[in-house]
Amino acid sequence: MVFEIFYSQLQELISVLLYDFAIKESKCQHVCGVPYTALPIATLLSVKAKKSMLMRRKEAKSYGTKKVIEGHYCVGDSCLIIEDVITSGSSVMETVNDLRKEGLKADEAIIILDREQGGKQNLENNNVSVKSLFTMSDLIGILVESKKVTEQMGIDVKNYLNNVQAPKSVSLNERILLPYEKRAELTSNPIAKKLFNIMAVKKTNLCISVDLTSSIKILDLIEQIGDHICLVKTHIDIIEDFCDNFITSLTNMAKKFNFLILEDRKFADIGNTIALQYEKGLYKINEWADCVTCHSLPGEGILKAFSSSNEGTNKGIFLLAEMSSEGNLITPEYTQATVKMAEKYSKLITGLVCQKKETFNNPEWIQLTPGVQLESSKDSLGQVYNTPEKVILENGADCVVVGRGIVFAKNPAAEAIVYKDTLWRCYMKRISGKIE
Ligand code: S5P
What we know:
The structure is a single chain. It contains 18 helices and 16 strands. With 436 residues, it is α/β, with parallel strands linked by helices. It has 2 domains: 2-163, 3-Layer(aba) Sandwich (Rossmann fold), CATH 3.40.50.2020; 175-432, Aldolase class I (TIM Barrel, Alpha-Beta Barrel), CATH 3.20.20. The strands form 3 sheets. The protein has an 8-stranded parallel barrel with strand order 7-8-9-10-11-12-13-16, surrounded by 4 helices. Strands 3-2-1-4-5-6 form a 6-stranded mixed beta sheet, sandwiched between helices. It has a two-stranded antiparallel sheet with strand order 14-15. Helix 5 (136-145) runs antiparallel to helix 6. The protein is elongated, with a radius of gyration of 26 Å. The structure holds 6-sulfanyluridine-5'-phosphate (S5P). 6-sulfanyluridine-5'-phosphate (S5P) is lined by residues 209, 211, 264, 293, 323-325, 353, 370-371, 383, 401-405. Residues 209, 211, 264, 293, 323-325, 353, 370-371, 383, 401-405 line the site of 6-sulfanyluridine-5'-phosphate. Substrate binds at residues 211, 233, 324, 383, 403-404. Keywords: Decarboxylase, Lyase, Pyrimidine biosynthesis.
């Protein structure tokens, strides 16, 4: 969109239109252009509207004041953000965050062109109202009408914009601060919606990992702790006396106690094999598991396979972005590539299995974090345990996996209550924003 600065008449016309459209009546004291392409138009508007201009540096100076926001302002002043184009809204959000850190009110953004790919919604989720001079639909309509592009091209562009939406985002702090019931409203994955709601209603974010090899013992354990959990995580292939009745009993318990079932199969093969492992064989996982875990290692084919297997059904995937075990080979680049892959298949994704809050900030997904016991420790085979406080308050976990900490406790039912209460207290503290 930077082209407008190459034509002085066009620049003047746009600044007049923007001025009449949104600045004339505004009571704000300052304007601030999103660096760099909106700086020229923001300068023109600041002169025309006689409002002082603030300038946001993308990198703070390494000498002098080291300020990120330059200009004359007082805490509490309001500042209008000017941007040329929005797609996801993330550039506007960076400027908003820096202005807010200075104590300025930055609650309105004026945009020349909204590409209608989710940016407006993302900004509104962050309490920034958006006014755009044009939307992409307006522009395409004008181009089709004046026969500058064909009708078919107009339809293709609109379909593209509908299909390629920016991931929903709120600032990192807000993902962590938003209560589960709010996130249930935001998410587009049906299993994430259910799980957020179950956590909110039952007041538990405890997932039990029932790593036992006897079906009777598993059912007996769940009968004791069913009221205190939101999710049961199985490794179906370790059960020595597996039979279809076990699945019937497990799914009946899921209804009775209102929890979901996650089969921790950690799929990691080519798409075709995944489809067979998911739907066929002894376990027919797709018939009873609400969601499964899956590695991103083989590439997108794995998610395509689940997409077609799950067509028309309400299922979800937890993608492994990080692991809890010592010396695992996952690198930061792998983790970020996994998050990118998840974004492309956002509707299918219930959440990510990961260890750090920085891993993602999409509030639609659930951060499932294993490797948790009441004391930090390790087992003899590389498992690393963090405490409930650490994983919820520092590391951003939304739903916490506990296995042996409960399963092998002297009194699993009593221990489940201790975990549930501790984890819930940490979550309540987190959403209150009172984390030191
Ligand atoms: O990174 C991971 C991912 C998973 S799903 N680390 C893990 O430990 N898990 C699983 O969580 C693991 O397969 C096991 O079933 C559970 C942790 O069990 P615990 O007994 O160590 O609490």
